Amino acid sequence: MPIEKNQVVLFHYSVRDDQGNAIENSRGGEPNAYLHGHGGVIRGLEEALEGRDAGDTFSVTVSPEKAYGPRTATRSSCSTTSKPSTSIRKVGDRRPFPQTP
Description:
Number of helices: 1
Strand content: 5-15%
Structural class: mainly beta
Radius of gyration: 17 Å
Strand order of the largest sheet: 1-4
Number of strands: 4
Largest sheet: 2 strands, antiparallel
Order of helices and strands: EEEEH
Distance between the termini: 47 Å
């Protein structure tokens, strides 16, 4: 069944730089899951997954415009928090999350 809007999609991925060096890989963990057609992943990846079937393996190069935008000196992807979260919840877990002061 081809991937189309409103389907839950699970996938593994690996990210490589322009020289082919591995940057990130989801193997060894749970696959990523998202609801297709609702912007749950970057646009270029969602477009590349559209119409693919379960088990397909492929490569895609996503342009900055279809990902997070071009790199600029005024934007930064770095963020910090004063209190890291240590709560882990599973789907269906109904316990309330701790309140932050």
